[in-house]
Amino acid sequence: MVMIIDDDQDDCDIFRDAAMQVADCKCHCINDSRKALSILDRAETYPNVIFLDINIPVIDGISLLKYLKGDPRFSSIPIVMYSTTNNPAEIETCLRMGANRFIKKSVSYQQLVRTLSEIKQEIMSG
User: Fold this and answer.
1) Does CATH number 1.10.287.3510 belong to domain 2-125?
2) Domain ranges (residues) in the chain
3) Which residues contact 33 (CB under 8 A, 6 or more apart)?
């Protein structure tokens, strides 16, 4: 199962389509961080990977990343930051805080499919 935390429904739909092309999996798109935390708190099984936008409502993506990586229940879930930022400091902060990878939203659909295929291989082999 893949969890996508992104408040932009169009981005979420594109991402879900690409993820389902790469792997036959369930993709849950959540549009705010508080709702995502509520779902994770009640979950019997956790996602195989979380794709997390930086700019989301309520709790920003970097703060949510810090929380998830600091909680033993969620710290082993691979988290891929997914954002439009070009700020090298933000990208470095995310990676230093435990994000497994950082991908940009502005890539083409085919590039997104290729990147998700790489991530799938990394997660399956890791």
Assistant:
1) no
2) 2-125
3) 5, 56, 57, 58, 59, 60, 61, 63, 64
DSSP 3-state helix, strand, coil percentages of the chain (rounded to 5)?
Answer: 50, 15, 35
Cβ pair 48, 126 in contact under 8 A: no
- Kindly report, residue by residue over 7-24, the tens digit of the pLDDT: 999 999 998 999 989 988
Sheet of strand 27-30: strand arrangement: 27-30, 2-5, 49-52, 79-83, 101-104
Distance CA 13, CA 10 (A): 5
**pLDDT for 27-78, tens place per residue?**
999 998 999 999 999 999 999 999 999 999 889 999 999 999 999 999 999 9
Tokens coding 10: 């169009």
